[in-house]
Amino acid sequence: MNRLSISGDDYVVGSNDPIAEPILPKIVTCPSDSEDYFDVYVTLAANPDNFTVTPHINSIEGSDMALLMDEMYTFYETPENIIELNAYMIKRGQFLAAKWTDDNWYRVRVETIVEREPLVLMCYFIDYGDIHTINFDKIQPLFGNFRKLPMQAIKASLAYVTPINSDWEVIACHEFAKRVEQKAFVSTVTEIVIDKDNRPTLKLILCDTSGETDIVINDWLVQENYATKKG
Protein backbone atom coordinates (compact mmCIF):
# COMPACT_ATOMS: atom_id res chain seq x y z
CA MET A 1 0.00 0.00 0.00
CA ASN A 2 1.47 3.34 -1.05
CA ARG A 3 0.95 6.20 1.40
CA LEU A 4 1.99 8.71 -1.25
CA SER A 5 -1.27 8.09 -3.11
CA ILE A 6 -3.36 9.12 -0.09
CA SER A 7 -4.64 12.66 0.28
CA GLY A 8 -7.28 14.78 2.02
CA ASP A 9 -9.53 13.02 4.53
CA ASP A 10 -8.14 9.67 3.42
CA TYR A 11 -4.78 10.67 4.85
CA VAL A 12 -6.35 11.42 8.22
CA VAL A 13 -8.93 8.66 8.68
CA GLY A 14 -7.67 6.12 6.12
CA SER A 15 -10.58 6.10 3.71
CA ASN A 16 -14.16 7.23 3.35
CA ASP A 17 -15.16 3.82 2.01
CA PRO A 18 -17.86 2.16 4.13
CA ILE A 19 -17.42 -1.36 5.48
CA ALA A 20 -20.22 -3.73 4.58
CA GLU A 21 -22.42 -5.18 7.31
CA PRO A 22 -21.91 -8.89 8.10
CA ILE A 23 -23.05 -11.39 5.50
CA LEU A 24 -26.01 -13.14 7.11
CA PRO A 25 -26.60 -16.89 6.88
CA LYS A 26 -29.84 -18.35 5.60
CA ILE A 27 -32.74 -19.22 7.88
CA VAL A 28 -33.33 -22.97 8.07
CA THR A 29 -36.01 -24.39 10.36
CA CYS A 30 -35.49 -28.03 9.34
CA PRO A 31 -31.90 -28.61 8.20
CA SER A 32 -31.45 -31.55 5.84
CA ASP A 33 -27.82 -31.34 4.71
CA SER A 34 -24.50 -29.80 5.78
CA GLU A 35 -25.10 -26.58 3.85
CA ASP A 36 -28.10 -25.84 6.07
CA TYR A 37 -25.86 -25.35 9.12
CA PHE A 38 -23.89 -22.26 10.08
CA ASP A 39 -20.59 -23.09 11.78
CA VAL A 40 -19.82 -20.38 14.32
CA TYR A 41 -17.28 -19.34 16.91
CA VAL A 42 -18.62 -17.60 20.02
CA THR A 43 -16.36 -14.65 20.82
CA LEU A 44 -18.36 -13.13 23.70
CA ALA A 45 -21.30 -14.20 25.83
CA ALA A 46 -23.23 -12.03 28.29
CA ASN A 47 -26.28 -14.29 28.55
CA PRO A 48 -28.30 -16.64 26.31
CA ASP A 49 -30.11 -13.65 24.79
CA ASN A 50 -26.95 -11.66 24.15
CA PHE A 51 -23.80 -13.18 22.70
CA THR A 52 -21.60 -12.65 19.66
CA VAL A 53 -20.61 -15.08 16.95
CA THR A 54 -18.33 -14.99 13.94
CA PRO A 55 -18.12 -17.49 11.07
CA HIS A 56 -15.97 -20.39 12.26
CA ILE A 57 -14.02 -20.32 9.01
CA ASN A 58 -12.30 -17.16 10.32
CA SER A 59 -10.29 -19.25 12.77
CA ILE A 60 -8.80 -21.35 9.98
CA GLU A 61 -5.31 -20.50 8.77
CA GLY A 62 -5.46 -18.88 5.34
CA SER A 63 -9.02 -17.56 5.73
CA ASP A 64 -9.83 -14.04 4.54
CA MET A 65 -9.97 -12.86 8.16
CA ALA A 66 -6.64 -14.46 9.05
CA LEU A 67 -5.00 -12.91 6.00
CA LEU A 68 -6.46 -9.50 6.86
CA MET A 69 -5.06 -9.68 10.39
CA ASP A 70 -1.63 -10.63 9.06
CA GLU A 71 -1.66 -7.83 6.49
CA MET A 72 -2.71 -5.24 9.07
CA TYR A 73 0.00 -6.34 11.48
CA THR A 74 2.69 -6.18 8.80
CA PHE A 75 1.54 -2.77 7.60
CA TYR A 76 1.05 -1.02 10.94
CA GLU A 77 4.17 -2.48 12.52
CA THR A 78 6.24 -0.87 9.75
CA PRO A 79 7.37 2.49 11.21
CA GLU A 80 7.26 4.43 7.93
CA ASN A 81 3.54 3.61 7.58
CA ILE A 82 2.60 5.21 10.90
CA ILE A 83 0.82 8.56 10.59
CA GLU A 84 0.61 11.31 13.20
CA LEU A 85 -3.12 11.86 13.50
CA ASN A 86 -4.97 15.04 14.42
CA ALA A 87 -7.28 14.34 17.35
CA TYR A 88 -9.88 16.87 16.20
CA MET A 89 -10.49 14.84 13.02
CA ILE A 90 -11.71 11.78 14.95
CA LYS A 91 -15.51 11.48 14.97
CA ARG A 92 -18.14 9.05 16.17
CA GLY A 93 -18.87 6.36 13.60
CA GLN A 94 -15.45 6.42 11.94
CA PHE A 95 -13.62 3.19 11.19
CA LEU A 96 -10.03 3.04 12.43
CA ALA A 97 -7.24 0.57 13.04
CA ALA A 98 -6.46 0.01 16.72
CA LYS A 99 -3.60 -1.78 18.43
CA TRP A 100 -4.85 -3.87 21.35
CA THR A 101 -3.01 -5.25 24.38
CA ASP A 102 -2.13 -8.47 22.53
CA ASP A 103 -0.09 -6.32 20.10
CA ASN A 104 -2.39 -7.17 17.18
CA TRP A 105 -4.16 -4.57 15.05
CA TYR A 106 -7.95 -4.67 14.74
CA ARG A 107 -10.64 -2.90 12.75
CA VAL A 108 -12.76 -0.76 15.06
CA ARG A 109 -15.63 1.72 14.86
CA VAL A 110 -15.68 4.76 17.13
CA GLU A 111 -18.77 4.53 19.34
CA THR A 112 -18.09 7.35 21.80
CA ILE A 113 -15.43 9.96 22.41
CA VAL A 114 -14.82 9.48 26.13
CA GLU A 115 -12.34 12.32 26.55
CA ARG A 116 -10.88 14.96 24.25
CA GLU A 117 -7.79 15.95 26.24
CA PRO A 118 -6.09 13.52 25.94
CA LEU A 119 -8.26 11.72 23.39
CA VAL A 120 -9.78 8.45 24.62
CA LEU A 121 -12.23 6.52 22.46
CA MET A 122 -14.82 3.85 23.15
CA CYS A 123 -14.51 1.52 20.17
CA TYR A 124 -16.44 -1.45 18.82
CA PHE A 125 -14.27 -4.24 17.41
CA ILE A 126 -16.28 -4.95 14.28
CA ASP A 127 -14.89 -8.44 13.67
CA TYR A 128 -15.13 -9.77 17.24
CA GLY A 129 -17.89 -7.84 19.03
CA ASP A 130 -15.85 -6.40 21.92
CA ILE A 131 -16.22 -2.81 23.09
CA HIS A 132 -13.14 -1.27 24.71
CA THR A 133 -11.60 2.10 25.46
CA ILE A 134 -8.63 2.91 23.24
CA ASN A 135 -6.05 5.62 23.80
CA PHE A 136 -5.26 8.02 20.97
CA ASP A 137 -1.70 6.74 20.59
CA LYS A 138 -3.03 3.26 19.71
CA ILE A 139 -5.08 4.23 16.66
CA GLN A 140 -4.24 4.68 12.99
CA PRO A 141 -6.20 5.36 9.81
CA LEU A 142 -7.97 2.32 8.36
CA PHE A 143 -7.06 2.33 4.69
CA GLY A 144 -9.20 1.08 1.84
CA ASN A 145 -7.39 -2.25 1.45
CA PHE A 146 -8.48 -3.15 4.97
CA ARG A 147 -12.13 -2.22 4.41
CA LYS A 148 -13.03 -4.74 1.71
CA LEU A 149 -13.95 -7.61 4.02
CA PRO A 150 -17.42 -7.18 5.57
CA MET A 151 -17.72 -6.89 9.35
CA GLN A 152 -17.55 -10.35 10.90
CA ALA A 153 -19.14 -10.06 14.36
CA ILE A 154 -22.86 -10.86 14.53
CA LYS A 155 -25.10 -10.54 17.57
CA ALA A 156 -26.92 -13.75 18.48
CA SER A 157 -29.52 -15.16 20.85
CA LEU A 158 -30.55 -18.72 21.68
CA ALA A 159 -33.78 -19.86 20.07
CA TYR A 160 -36.67 -21.54 21.88
CA VAL A 161 -35.52 -20.82 25.45
CA THR A 162 -36.48 -18.22 28.03
CA PRO A 163 -35.24 -17.48 31.58
CA ILE A 164 -36.80 -19.32 34.50
CA ASN A 165 -37.75 -15.95 36.00
CA SER A 166 -38.22 -12.54 34.38
CA ASP A 167 -34.51 -12.21 33.60
CA TRP A 168 -31.46 -14.44 33.37
CA GLU A 169 -30.04 -15.28 36.78
CA VAL A 170 -26.38 -14.53 37.45
CA ILE A 171 -25.50 -18.22 37.73
CA ALA A 172 -27.19 -18.93 34.39
CA CYS A 173 -25.21 -16.17 32.69
CA HIS A 174 -21.98 -17.37 34.25
CA GLU A 175 -22.47 -21.02 33.34
CA PHE A 176 -23.62 -20.18 29.82
CA ALA A 177 -20.58 -17.98 29.21
CA LYS A 178 -18.26 -20.66 30.60
CA ARG A 179 -19.90 -23.26 28.37
CA VAL A 180 -19.81 -21.36 25.07
CA GLU A 181 -17.31 -18.50 25.09
CA GLN A 182 -14.25 -18.91 22.85
CA LYS A 183 -15.62 -22.18 21.46
CA ALA A 184 -16.86 -23.46 18.10
CA PHE A 185 -20.38 -24.75 17.42
CA VAL A 186 -22.57 -26.00 14.64
CA SER A 187 -25.63 -23.78 14.59
CA THR A 188 -29.03 -23.64 12.96
CA VAL A 189 -30.45 -20.19 12.22
CA THR A 190 -34.16 -20.23 13.03
CA GLU A 191 -34.86 -16.50 12.71
CA ILE A 192 -33.15 -13.17 12.09
CA VAL A 193 -34.49 -10.27 14.17
CA ILE A 194 -33.76 -6.68 13.10
CA ASP A 195 -33.56 -4.19 15.98
CA LYS A 196 -34.45 -0.49 16.07
CA ASP A 197 -30.95 0.41 14.84
CA ASN A 198 -31.43 -1.89 11.83
CA ARG A 199 -28.89 -4.37 13.17
CA PRO A 200 -29.55 -8.11 13.02
CA THR A 201 -29.66 -10.69 15.79
CA LEU A 202 -29.47 -14.36 14.83
CA LYS A 203 -31.77 -16.74 16.69
CA LEU A 204 -29.68 -19.89 16.97
CA ILE A 205 -29.75 -23.50 18.01
CA LEU A 206 -26.17 -24.18 19.15
CA CYS A 207 -24.78 -27.70 18.99
CA ASP A 208 -21.45 -28.70 20.52
CA THR A 209 -20.05 -31.50 18.35
CA SER A 210 -16.58 -31.59 19.95
CA GLY A 211 -17.23 -34.65 22.14
CA GLU A 212 -18.41 -38.20 21.62
CA THR A 213 -22.02 -37.08 22.07
CA ASP A 214 -23.46 -33.92 20.53
CA ILE A 215 -24.83 -31.44 23.09
CA VAL A 216 -27.48 -28.91 22.11
CA ILE A 217 -26.82 -25.89 24.31
CA ASN A 218 -30.45 -24.80 24.21
CA ASP A 219 -31.52 -28.15 25.67
CA TRP A 220 -28.61 -28.19 28.13
CA LEU A 221 -29.82 -24.90 29.66
CA VAL A 222 -33.26 -26.40 30.23
CA GLN A 223 -31.83 -29.62 31.67
CA GLU A 224 -29.71 -27.60 34.11
CA ASN A 225 -32.80 -25.61 35.19
CA TYR A 226 -31.37 -22.35 33.89
CA ALA A 227 -34.11 -21.92 31.27
CA THR A 228 -37.49 -23.13 30.11
CA LYS A 229 -38.57 -24.13 26.62
CA LYS A 230 -40.65 -21.75 24.55
CA GLY A 231 -42.19 -21.92 21.11
From TrEMBL:
Which named protein is this?
A: Tudor domain-containing protein 7-like isoform X2
Domain of life the protein comes from? Eukaryota
Tell me the organism.
Leptotrombidium deliense
Listed PANTHER family: FI02030P-RELATED, TUDOR DOMAIN CONTAINING PROTEIN
Q: Name one GO cellular component term.
A: cytoplasm
Q: Which segments cross the bilayer?
A: none
Provide the Tudor domain boundaries. 89-149
The cross-references to SMART domains, in alphabetical order and at most eight, read: TUDOR (SM00333)
